[in-house]
Write a structure and sequence with these properties.
The chain has 164 residues and is mainly alpha-helical. It has helices at 16-27, 33-60, 66-96, 109-137, 141-163; strands at residues 6-7, 12-13.
Length: 164
């Protein structure tokens, strides 16, 4: 027997309000589940572009230092981990907990881990650029303007992850 029982005489669902509720829940998926699926597609596309750039970099930049090459490779590994966590989060919300509206009120472990990995990527990239600015300009004060907002962002990410 199906989940919706029908009134045999009228051939209509027994409860019009339950049908309206189901319809409302399906419509609201555009702004929740649909948004996370679109974001996942964009993350995967950007990961593909990044992977191609890393491949081209390693084949066309043999003179760069080992530190720079290792940093780029490490960032690519972190991007791979980011994609895995993002994919798990989408699967968790879109497949495992499909039609479970309470699941959308809690963060999955992979979504929280993704915050930390994304923040780590952001920190490494920002510090790398700050170091390059310091080397090129020879001044330390621009580092303060770059690093302070980064520290505030990191504290915010940690606070978000700990609260949840």
């Amino acid at each position: 027997m199906s989940g919706l029982s029908t009134n045999m005489a009228a051939g209509m669902p027994r409860s019009a309000s339950s049908m309206l509720l189901l319809s409302t829940e399906l419509c609201s998926l555009d702004s929740t589940l649909g948004a996370i699926v679109i974001a996942e597609i964009l993350v995967a596309v950007l990961y593909g572009i990044t992977s191609m750039q890393v491949y081209i970099y390693f084949h066309c930049s043999p003179r760069d230092s080992r530190l720079v090459k290792r940093t780029i490779f490490f960032l690519w590994i972190l991007s791979s981990i980011y994609l895995v966590f993002a994919s798990h989060a989408v699967y968790y919300y879109a497949v495992t907990n499909f039609m479970n509206p309470l699941a959308a009120t809690k963060y999955s472990w992979s979504l929280v881990a993704n915050l930390f990995v994304g923040d780590l990527i952001e920190i490494i990239v920002t510090l790398t650029f700050a170091y390059r600015i310091y080397i090129l300009s020879g001044r330390k004060w621009p580092l303060i303007l770059i690093i302070l907002p980064q520290v505030a962002s990191c504290i915010g990410t940690i606070a978000t992850g700990v609260v949840e």
